[in-house]
C-alpha cells in the first residue's frame, strides 16, 4: 500500500524519465515540510519505489511538485517564455492511512491530468 506516483509524457507518448519531483507534507496553517526530492526513472516512477511506505503513511495533506518545464526543456522542446506550465503542484489528502494512494500525472507542455489511481 502506501503512496506512489507515475508520470507519463503525453506529448512524446512515453514515461517522463528524468523529471524532477518533490514530495511535501502540508498543513492547514500553511506550513510545508519537504519529505523528499527525486528524479523519475526510465519507467516514470520513483527509483526507490513507494514515496511513503504503507506503515509510515499518515492521514493528512500532501503536495507533489513536478518540474514540467525543466523536463520538456531537457527533451529539447521549444518552450515559450514564460512557459505555460512551469511546475505542476498537486495538493491531495490522505484520509485512510492503511489504503494505497497512487497519484499519476499525464502531462504535456500545455496540459496535465491527474486522478487517484490504484
Would you give an account of this structure?
The chain has 118 residues and is mainly β. The chain has a single domain (2-114), classed as Immunoglobulin-like (Sandwich), CATH 2.60.40.180. The chain is built from one helix and eight strands, in the order E-E-E-E-E-H-E-E-E. The chain has a four-stranded mixed beta sheet with strand order 2-1-7-8, with no helix packed on it. The protein is globular and about 40 Å long. It starts with a strand and ends with a strand. The model has no long low-confidence stretch (mean pLDDT 96).
> How much is the radius of gyration in Å?
14 Å
Q: Describe the sheet with the most strands.
A: 4 strands, mixed
Which percent band covers the strand fraction? 35-45%
Look at the structure and give the CATH class: Mainly Beta
Q: How would you describe the shape?
A: globular
Distance between the amino and carboxyl termini: 10 Å
Major sheet strand order: 2-1-7-8
Based on the coordinates given, report the CATH architecture: Sandwich
Instruction: State the helical fraction.
Output: under 10%
- What letter string, H or E per element, gives the SSE order? EEEEEHEEE
The tally of strands reads: 8
In the CATH hierarchy, what is the superfamily? Transthyretin/hydroxyisourate hydrolase domain
Which runs of at least 5 residues are low in confidence (pLDDT < 50)? none
Structural class: mainly beta
